[in-house]
């Protein structure tokens, strides 16, 4: 459990002057918005950094006094409504800059054109599209390994367990978020995402696409303690309608004084759904899918290949605490936004690394093809599939899988795969009702073609 902040003190300095005149300098020194490392720390952590001789409640009030001068109102949440505020931290500026430089649709097009191998790059990166669906499910407790989940989605076999159903549902929900990127937010879009994501898993538990109608939904920690009681179900749709109006308002217009970067706004939307908890279950998945939906809508297509949940699941307690720090400190959204921005900045760095690896893989692969004499024997589509297999991003291929990734006809995809078999680069085996293709061992390929 976290230590909640003391009750607010209006003007701490008047009390300091009256009761602690000899310590004015020490109190002024602690009254900073950020710590020496640029972190926006909550009271739960700041209390250990205050000098022992200071009154901690008064020292915290001095910190809050400094922060309140910079905190800007952004939206009202809850019942009764509370004003939510935030201020920009260094982590936010870093994440926003990385987002603008590396994740726009224009940036992706430039990255593809730079190497002249757009189809190969897209296929190599397509493997990453699945990562958010898988890691988001694992964050919610799905006990399925990433390897098994990749095979499940790649081969499109039917789910055998509730955990596998969750992964497929999450994947469908992320796809739906992408497909709906040109739509405005609405109650229907929110319920549609939920229905697509959870239907068929355990309908009696999730109530797919239906908002909760009671107040029995709570958030508990690992020990069963209630850490969040969502606002009452009564007036839920009315509150969400106000949120929808806020989301659909353009906050990047030069004439709008309340500028909010789309990534920051997407993070706030993520928080809102988690805070309101509009469904009986599956709220976290919907919150994260709406985060992605908003970024897709605003032209940040690179986020299709960036899985924030992969990093969130590494430290789920910190993720949960970022909600609690906001809720227990007068709805200061800075805690949640700052934490998410730190995660996003790391995820974008990983995306850039994946891109660099893909480019290097393509260069090395093309060199091998020329030196072995294979280049002229393979069609462009076969080169793409062969390189994806060689990179290790995907180990198993089906005709339907290749058809979707190459955006070609079924017969074309079949010709691509069977041609690779004829060239002794791939093997195929019947599994159930479909043929599954995989690459022959590299040593055998080298022996055959060098």
UniProtKB/TrEMBL annotation:
Pfam families: Fic
UniProt-listed InterPro entries: Fido, Fido-like_dom_sf, Fido_containing
Alphabetical UniProt keywords: ATP-binding, Nucleotide-binding
Region forming the signal peptide: none
Molecular functions (GO terms): ATP binding
Location of the active site: 277
Chain ranges of the Fido domain: 185-339
Gene3D superfamilies linked: Fido-like domain
Protein name, UniProt field: Fic family protein
Annotated binding of ATP, by residue: 281-288
PROSITE patterns the record matches: FIDO (PS51459)
């Amino acid at each position: 459990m976290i230590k909640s902040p003391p009750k607010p003190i209006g003007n701490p300095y008047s009390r300091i002057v009256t009761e602690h005149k000899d310590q004015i300098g020490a109190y002024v020194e602690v009254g900073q918005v950020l710590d020496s490392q640029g972190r926006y720390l909550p009271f739960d952590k700041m209390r250990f950094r205050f000098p022992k001789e200071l009154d901690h409640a008064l020292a915290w009030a001095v910190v809050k006094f400094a922060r309140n001068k910079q905190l800007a109102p952004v939206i009202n949440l809850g019942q009764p409504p509370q004003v939510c505020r935030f201020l920009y931290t260094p982590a936010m500026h870093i994440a926003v800059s990385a987002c603008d430089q590396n994740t726009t649709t224009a940036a992706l097009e430039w990255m593809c054109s730079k190497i002249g191998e757009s189809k190969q790059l897209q296929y190599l990166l397509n493997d990453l599209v699945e990562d958010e669906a898988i890691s988001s499910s694992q964050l919610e407790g799905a006990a399925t390994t990433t390897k098994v989940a990749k095979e499940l989605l790649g081969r499109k076999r039917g789910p055998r367990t509730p955990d596998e159903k969750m992964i497929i549902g999450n994947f469908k929900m992320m796809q739906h978020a992408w497909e709906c990127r040109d739509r405005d937010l609405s109650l229907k879009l929110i319920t549609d995402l939920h229905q697509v994501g959870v239907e068929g898993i355990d309908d009696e538990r999730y109530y797919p696409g239906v908002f909760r109608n009671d107040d029995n939904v709570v958030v508990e920690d690992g020990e069963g303690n209630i850490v969040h009681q969502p606002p009452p179900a009564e007036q839920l749709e009315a509150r969400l309608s106000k949120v929808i109006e806020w989301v659909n308002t353009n906050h990047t217009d030069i004439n709008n004084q309340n500028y909010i970067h789309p990534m920051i706004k997407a993070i706030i939307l993520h928080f809102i759904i988690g805070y309101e908890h509009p469904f009986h279950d599956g709220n976290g998945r919907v919150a994260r899918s709406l985060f992605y939906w908003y970024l897709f809508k605003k032209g940040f297509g690179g986020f299709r290949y960036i899985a924030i949940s992969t990093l969130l699941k590494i430290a789920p307690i910190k993720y949960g605490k970022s909600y609690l720090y906001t809720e227990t400190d007068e709805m200061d959204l800075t805690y949640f936004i700052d934490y998410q921005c730190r995660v996003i900045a790391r995820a974008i760095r990983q995306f850039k690394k994946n891109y660099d690896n893909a480019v290097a893989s393509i260069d090395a692969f093309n060199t091998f093809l020329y030196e072995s004499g294979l280049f002229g024997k393979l069609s462009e589509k076969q080169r793409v599939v062969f390189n994806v297999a060689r990179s290790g991003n995907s180990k198993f291929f089906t005709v339907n899988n290749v058809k979707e990734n190459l955006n070609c006809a079924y017969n074309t995809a079949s010709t691509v795969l069977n041609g690779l078999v004829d060239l002794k680069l791939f093997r195929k085996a019947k599994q159930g009702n479909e043929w599954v293709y995989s690459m022959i061992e590299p040593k055998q390929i080298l022996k055959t073609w060098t």
